Amino acid sequence: MVTLGLITERPAGPIFRQFFSSLQAVDLAKLGIVVSKVCATFEQAIEHGGDTGTDVWVLPDPTTLRAESLHRLCGDSIPKLLPQPIVVVCADEADMVSALEHRVSAIVLADDSPWQAASAIHAAAARALFVSPRLLSRYRHQLVELITSPPSSRIDALTRREHDVLICLAEGGSNSEIAHRLFISRATVGSHVLAILRKLDASNRTEAAAFAYRYGLMSSRGNTQPGSPDRTRPASPAVPINGKYMRA
Description:
Elements: E1 2-7, H1 14-25, E2 33-39, H2 42-46, E3 56-59, H3 67-74, E4 84-90, H4 93-101, E5 104-109, H5 114-125, E6 130-131, H6 133-138, H7 140-148, H8 152-157, H9 160-170, H10 175-182, H11 186-200, H12 205-214, E7 238-241, E8 244-247
Parallel strand pairs: 1-2, 1-3, 3-4, 4-5, 5-6
Antiparallel strand pairs: 7-8
Helix pairs in contact: 9-10, 9-11, 9-12, 10-11
């Protein structure tokens, strides 16, 4: 059972009063929630800060958010750098940005349903991020692009040779095999692999390989194969074989 603290003030906001009325109109106990405190002001709520009887606070006004105040409200048991067990009721997207900057766990719109508010409350209790589905819907295209598009800054950070090494690595090549294919030493391959892991923020070779496949690097090779010799490498001298000059 999640114990809930409510702060009900919002100077010019009948829609917020409607939100709290609709929340209190449902049987919260059936949703695993019980209201433990209702405070008229943020300052009054801070007086109960650190009270173990309140798991999650619902705030109606993101403009009142201050990092130190939130920490006092939630108590010293919650590290400042972790998401705070707070649900903020926002009126618009600008409020959402402000709330996220203050590390709150959940954000709902003032006219979200009580069921969505209940989901946000449970997410905040678990220190998990919850954002109103309607807000997520507004940013759907940006989210899809973020998830499916390659992070260009990481890709651009790779040198051409690191790109080749990554492709060989993704194809399952060992350092020795990559060195043979690219006409470089094993030590050089090892240095390139370390640089690739660092630039892609990958924890191991498997994760880097998955990155290459997921973001289409394997299909972007064009006509240049990673196993081909470096263009700057001098050509092998021609030698006579059966009366014809062939390159070794």
